[in-house]
Design a protein that fits this description.
Layout lengths: L14 H13 L2 H12 L6 E2 L1 H11 L4 H15 L7 E2 H17 L12
Antiparallel strand pairs: 1-2
Helix pairs in contact: 3-4
């Protein structure tokens, strides 16, 4: 999001870029936000996530030893790959999201960090 790549902010966000990015995330529809999140990890751009994608996701969100990280990747991948084809489709991926959202609503917590952006 460092659009201008000029001056002292080269490679980093300046306050305006940060504000614009945050605003854009807050006004996204659920479908656009899902596309955005899914495409962050769909490195091959084939509409599927593979184990490498899940490993990247886990490593960016969890501070685990390599052994525990590998176990978590296997667990997450196998639980999401419902049809056993070795890939996680967008539909399979967001079935997990809807389960998490339902559980969050039952506990009266926001379903996503963007729920209260208004």
């Amino acid at each position: 999001m460092d659009f201008n790549k000029k001056g002292t902010s080269a490679g980093a966000l300046d306050p305006t870029e940060f504000t614009v990015g945050l605003y854009n995330m807050c006004i996204m529809t659920k479908d656009l936000l899902e596309d955005y999140v899914f495409n962050l990890y769909d490195e091959v751009h084939d509409g599927n996530l593979n184990k490498h994608s899940i490993k990247k996701m886990v490593s960016e969100s969890q501070d685990l030893s390599s052994e525990n990280q590998d176990k978590l990747v296997e667990t997450v991948f196998n639980s999401l790959d419902k049809d056993g084809d070795g890939h996680i489709s967008k539909k399979e991926f967001f079935k997990l999201d809807s389960k998490v959202s339902e559980a969050s609503r039952e506990r009266s917590e926001p379903a996503t960090p963007f729920t209260n952006c208004d």
